[in-house]
């Protein structure tokens, strides 16, 4: 069932009670100044985390920011593979993930061993990895991509066939926009896979003027009924630039909080069941503990870091 984000935002369990937030937010600011830290947060983070972030973005924007910062400490409010990508691009910085158990089930669907088995029947084919993969897996592939640049990265390859890991739906979406043959792994995002065309059509029937936007991690039947398919940064752009004043968001609901804040005259409808429990693990209290006690430092073996970095940097050079 869809709901306007403004009517939903206080209901999500696990948030810091409103009266406790100001003191914790002040503690975050004080520790951040003392540690010369920057807080990078993904668009799906809890509202309380978005409110203390120095920078909010999608996977690609956050990687770029991590590579460019001169802060001594990066507190990464997102999931494990994103914090690893920050470490890959800023190896000399201390990168902290406030909850080490904030993982990505889609990223966990592929390991170096499963990748070896997947690619065995296709010797010589390049492997493109969605950034939603571990550093160990990135170290084994030719190039990375995010949902914002997947089509561009794949079209840049000097090959007619390629392997794509781990998201079957992103692979399917890119296949619609390239002449190359994509052989996709069968992973998926449990949060986006639950969307159906009926969910979006029902919201559209109730709000016929609204623009329906879906993330390319959604199944093809959802892509078919969406007006726009975009990464979370693409959704931020569309919400700001489109003349329409209502938007249906077929993605994780946290993005709706940012969009409503940045576009006060517009309405955003979200689906509360589309919550990423891992993204929602980060709270103000955990950010304070992270800055106070270095919880939890991301460390990578140097050979993995160097090889993974090549795949990420190839992507950045193209995108
Ligand atoms: P974006 O890069 O579009 O922010 O997506 C990341 C992600 O994990 C989506 O589920
Ligand atoms: Fe992973 Fe899906 Fe959560 Fe994104 S929303 S971090 S792909 S589980």
Averaging pLDDT over every residue, what do you get?
97
Please identify which CATH superfamily of the largest domain we are dealing with.
Answer: NadA-like
Please state the CA-atom Rg, rounded to the nearest Å: 19 Å
Secondary-structure element order, N to C: EHHEHEHEHEHEHEHEHEHHEHEHEHEHH
The secondary structure category is: alpha/beta
Domain count: the total is: 3
**Biggest pleated sheet:** 5 strands, mixed
Amino-to-carboxy terminus distance: 36 Å
* Bound small-molecule species: 1,3-dihydroxyacetonephosphate, iron/sulfur cluster
Strand proportion, as a percent range, falls in 15-25%
Low-confidence stretches: none
Q: What is the name of the CATH topology of the largest domain?
A: Rossmann fold
Shape: globular
Helix content: 40-55%
CATH class of the largest domain: Alpha Beta
Number of helices: 16
Topology:
Elements: E1 3-4, H1 5-8, H2 21-35, E2 37-42, H3 47-52, E3 55-57, H4 59-68, E4 73-77, H5 80-89, E5 94-96, H6 112-119, E6 127-130, H7 135-138, E7 143-145, H8 150-156, E8 161-165, H9 168-175, E9 181-184, H10 190-193, H11 197-206, E10 211-214, H12 220-225, E11 228-229, H13 232-241, E12 246-250, H14 254-262, E13 267-270, H15 284-293, H16 302-318
Parallel strand pairs: 2-3, 2-4, 4-5, 6-7, 6-8, 8-9, 10-11, 10-12, 12-13
Antiparallel strand pairs: 1-13
Bound molecules: 1,3-dihydroxyacetonephosphate and iron/sulfur cluster.
Residues 43, 58-59, 132, 146-148, 189, 217, 231-232 line the site of 1,3-dihydroxyacetonephosphate (13P).
């Amino acid at each position: 069932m869809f709901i306007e984000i403004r009517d939903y935002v206080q209901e999500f369990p696990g948030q810091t009670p409103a009266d406790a937030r100001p003191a914790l937010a002040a503690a975050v600011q004080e520790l951040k100044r003392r540690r010369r830290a920057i807080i990078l947060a993904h668009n799906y983070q809890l509202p309380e985390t978005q409110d203390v972030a120095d920078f909010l973005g999608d996977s690609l924007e956050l990687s770029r920011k991590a590579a460019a910062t001169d802060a001594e400490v990066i507190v990464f409010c997102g999931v494990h593979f994103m914090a690893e990508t920050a470490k890959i691009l800023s190896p000399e910085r201390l990168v902290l993930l406030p909850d080490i158990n904030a993982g990505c089930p889609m990223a966990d669907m592929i390991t170096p061993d499963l990748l070896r088995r997947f690619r065995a029947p296709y010797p010589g084919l390049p492997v493109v990895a969605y950034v939603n993969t571990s550093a160990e897996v990135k170290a084994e592939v030719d190039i990375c991509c995010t949902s914002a640049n997947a089509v561009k990265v794949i079209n840049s390859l000097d090959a007619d066939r390629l392997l794509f890991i781990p998201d079957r739906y992103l692979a399917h979406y890119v296949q619609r926009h390239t002449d190359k043959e994509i052989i996709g792994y069968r992973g998926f995002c449990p949060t986006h896979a639950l969307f159906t065309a009926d969910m979006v059509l029902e919201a559209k029937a109730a709000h016929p003027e609204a623009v329906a936007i879906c993330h390319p991690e959604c199944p093809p039947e959802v892509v078919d009924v969406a007006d726009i398919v975009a990464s979370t940064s693409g959704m931020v752009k569309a919400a700001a630039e489109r003349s329409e004043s209502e938007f249906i968001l077929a993605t994780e609901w946290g993005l709706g909080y940012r969009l409503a804040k940045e576009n006060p005259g517009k309405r955003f409808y979200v689906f509360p069941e589309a919550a990423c429990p891992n993204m929602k693990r980060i709270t103000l209290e955990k950010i304070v503990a992270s800055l106070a006690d270095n919880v939890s430092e991301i460390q990578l073996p140097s050979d993995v870091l160097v090889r993974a970095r090549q795949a990420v940097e190839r992507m950045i050079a193209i995108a």
